[in-house]
Design goal:
This is methylmalonate-semialdehyde dehydrogenase (CoA acylating). Its EC number is 1.2.1.27. It is an enzyme of class 1 (oxidoreductase). This protein is 38% helix and 22% strand. With 503 residues, it is of the alpha/beta class. It folds into 2 domains: 271 residues, Aldehyde Dehydrogenase, Chain A, domain 1 (3-Layer(aba) Sandwich); 188 residues, Aldehyde Dehydrogenase, Chain A, domain 2. The strands form 6 sheets. Strands 15-16-17-14-13-19-20 form a 7-stranded mixed β-sheet, with helices on both faces. It has a 6-stranded mixed β-sheet with strand order 10-9-8-11-12-22, with helices on both faces. β11, α9 and β12 form a beta-alpha-beta unit. It starts with a strand and ends in a 20-residue tail after the last strand. Bound molecules: nicotinamide-adenine-dinucleotide.
Length: 503
């Protein structure tokens, strides 16, 4: 069986590790590749390779770095179909969703192509008599990206385009569940002209991550994954003196107001709840329906929509399915446990996705769209991230109660409101405790030139990914204040012993 390699110093390298993990095609429930869980020496080799490449790359002009990224962008476009099929094969998401993921990643590359402008720093003339000040935004050194299974192309591309554009070198540790994309991205970067050693991929699991988090040559860590691991990564990297941004899990709420455009809202909710089988950190997994009347209408329409959904393989000849399988057998079992707990705790199960069978794919990891009504905030299916195609409806009497629920939840990644009332919408934008907010937009993922990140336990660290925060994360500011003595002859008795004020 094919073994997915490491990519270190510009070379594809077979791992010597005796620890491996199977990579499955979740639509057929079969292992299709193996990935080695790299040894400590292999992980250190990747760090060393990035460390050695840093000096020269950091001094390469931003324009030259941008030109490589321009070529990388073109190569991504040329290879889009092949890459989308590979994403769908290992992750399970439908082909057009994989194309969408690649497009969102590509947009960060496009943003990073503007680095000569973004990394200019600041300058002030005459901050004192004959004194000027300017700032440099310098790269940090070796940066690390640790990424989740659900966006094997997009999430790495939230990180490395800006890290490389700003003059850093990079080690990517992708998810061991769908690692092939990482190698394809590395090969395309090399084809685009990126010198060897600047971008490296090391396959592995926690053991690999622990080396990356503690090695003194690593300067910064970007992590995206579940909240317990994000918290661990942030604490460990910070304790070892590294800059860290760690994005975690979510439970994204939407408030459905009685005046909402129901056609628009229902279409949006169905797509955002069940797209990618709910395996998105911005999936909409809770609807707070304000008033029984709107809740009853919502439930009726959702049931109709769900009844028309097609679930199956992510790649089909002819008409595409709406939703593919979930990532693994274990994850499927976990989602089914959540559904069982919802029933046990008294929620009303209106559509049950357990036992879903897809003809010709009997061993695939399918869970059908699942809908619960009369969910209450004490239930496990409300409190925890399920990360599957399960939508829960909580009935609330008024907007105030709905807002309080959103704000009291542990997570604060995204939140949305469906309403025609501008005053309520504006107030929601002001008051909601969430990092990304949608007004009649179900998945408010910011564009590449804005920054992506949640609040509360959906993120650890002060800076979000991409946009201006991304540039700040991968650079360190240095401010130089200078006076050239030719015009000012300093005499010995000109020494000053008070705090300089430039007055
Ligand atoms: P995960 O936390 O299991 O794994 C993420 C990465 O961490 C992987 O590379 C994995 O190998 C590594 N890892 C796993 N356990 C580890 C440990 N104990 N110590 C060190 N490293 C470890 O997450 P996942 O299941 O791959 O992805 C799904 C999760 O990611 C969901 O919770 C989802 O909400 C979250 N996510 C968040 C965002 C966001 O922007 N906030 C985006 C995408 C996914």
């Amino acid at each position: 069986m094919e073994q997915i390699k490491n990519f270190i110093g510009g070379q594809l390298i077979d791992s010597k590790s005796n620890r491996t993990s199977s990579v499955f095609n979740p639509a057929i429930g079969q292992a299709i590749r193996q990935v080695a869980l790299s040894t400590a020496d292999e992980t250190k080799h990747a760090i060393e390779s990035a460390h050695l490449a840093f000096n020269e790359w950091s001094k390469t002009s931003p324009l030259k770095r941008a030109r490589i990224l321009f070529r990388f962008k073109s190569l991504l476009e040329e290879n889009r179909d092949r890459l989308a099929r590979l994403i769908s094969e290992e992750h399970g998401k439908i082909y057009s969703d994989a194309i969408g993921e690649l497009t969102r990643g590509l947009e960060v590359v496009e943003f990073a192509c503007g680095i000569p402008h973004l990394q200019k720093g600041e300058h002030s003339a005459n901050v004192g008599s004959g004194v000027d000040s300017h700032s440099l935004m310098q790269p940090l050194g070796v940066c690390v990206g640790i990424t989740p299974f659900n966006f094997p192309a997009m999430v790495p591309m939230w990180m490395f385009p800006l890290a490389l554009a700003t003059g850093n070198t990079f080690v990517l540790k992708p998810s061991e569940k769908d690692p092939s994309l990482s190698i394809e991205l590395a090969k395309l970067l090399q084809q685009a002209g990126l010198p060897d050693g600047i971008f490296n991929v090391v396959q592995g699991d926690k053991e690999t991550v622990d080396i990356l988090l503690t090695d003194p040559r690593v300067q910064a860590v970007s992590f995206v994954g579940s909240t317990p691991v994000a918290e661990y990564v942030y604490a460990t990297a910070s304790a070892h003196g590294k800059r860290c941004q760690a994005l975690g899990g979510a439970k994204n709420h939407s408030i459905l107001m009685p005046d909402a455009d129901m056609d628009m809202a229902v279409n949006a909710i169905v797509g955002a709840a069940f797209g990618a089988a709910g395996e998105r950190c911005m999936a909409l997994s809770v609807v707070l329906a304000v008033g029984d009347e709107i809740a009853d209408q919502l439930v009726e329409r959702l049931q109709q929509h769900i009844g028309q959904m097609s679930v199956g393989s992510g790649i089909t000849e002819g008409k595409e399915n709406d939703m593919g399988p979930v990532i693994s057998e274990q994850h499927k079992a976990k989602i089914c446990d959540y559904i069982r707990s919802g029933v046990d705790q008294g929620a009303r199960l209106l559509v049950d996705g357990r036992g879903y069978q897809v003809a010709g794919h009997e061993r695939g990891y399918f869970v059908g769209p699942t809908l619960f009504d009369y969910v209450t905030p004490d239930m496990k299916i409300y409190k925890e991230e399920i990360f599957g195609p399960v939508l829960v409806i909580v009935r609330v009497p008024d907007y105030g109660t709905a807002l309080q629920l959103v704000n009291h939840h542990e997570y604060g990644n995204g939140a949305a409101i469906f309403t025609r009332d501008g005053e309520v919408a504006r107030q929601f934008g002001e008051d909601v405790q969430s990092g990304m907010v949608g007004i009649n937009i179900p998945i408010p993922v910011p564009m590449a030139f804005h920054s992506f990140g949640g609040w509360k336990r959906s993120i650890f660290g002060p800076l979000n990914v991409h946009g201006n925060d991304g540039v700040r994360f991968y650079t360190r500011m240095k401010t130089i204040t200078s006076r050239w003595p030719a015009s000012v002859r300093l005499e010995h008795h000109d020494s000053h012993f008070v705090m300089p004020t430039m007055e």
